[in-house]
Amino acid sequence: xxxxxxxxxxxxxxxxxxRLERYRACPYxxxxxxxxxxxxxxxxxxxxxxxxxxxxVHRVLGQLYTKGAVPLAGLKQEALACxxxxxAGLGLTRFWAEVTRRLFENNIDDLIECEAELRSEGFDPAxxxxxxxxxxxxxVLVKGRLDRYDSDGTKLRVLDYKTGGSPFVSAxxxxxxxxxxxxxxxxxxxxxxxxxxxxxxxxxxxTREARVRxxxxxxxxxxxxxxxxxxxxVEIVKAIxxxxxxxxxxxxxxxxxxxxxxxxxxxxxxxxxx
Length: 274
Known about the structure:
alpha/beta, six-stranded mixed sheet, 6 strands, disordered C terminus
């Protein structure tokens, strides 16, 4: 088992930052999904699946700023043109293509207001869908795809798109709870990849709420967040390589709706439905 884990997550492997965060959410679920490769089957629903909607929005916003900032006056037209291109590439039926367009149109004006606010602070979109990789600590290589970063010329802001409600991530969750490491590590990798630039802040951009929640503040700097996240990543990788996958989720409430609950035995199915 340890030999297999070494081949999969060894020192020479670049480990996904997103997957490391899944380990911190629940080591046992990580084992079931990422090591065993098992996934729960779900009943199909007559709606756009959240995962597919997330893919659509990420691709649209990624294509929108491929060549840098788009003038606000033409942003809506450009965004809808990107949407049409993305939807056509996914091969959606006419019905679902129309549903997707209407959902996007309902939200686009709010997104433009959010974009205008970001630009009023002197930062313009400078890069999207950026592949990053590098060391996170001794014998730990990580990789990830950054959704977007903005620039004012010398300082950079890192943004992570979320198509649902933006989860409230506090600095404490990075420095003390150790439940979030994705954004700080992306900042670390981007800073290494863009020498001479400094990271001004990092934020979670909820496309549904059309708002950005910034992580760093006066009480906790960007550097402190990066340092804590790197330490967290090293701890996680050490535990994975040692074969430690206890059913101890970071959020106890997650057990009630966990699709792996029937496997780990931590929560009885009857209790999970209450």
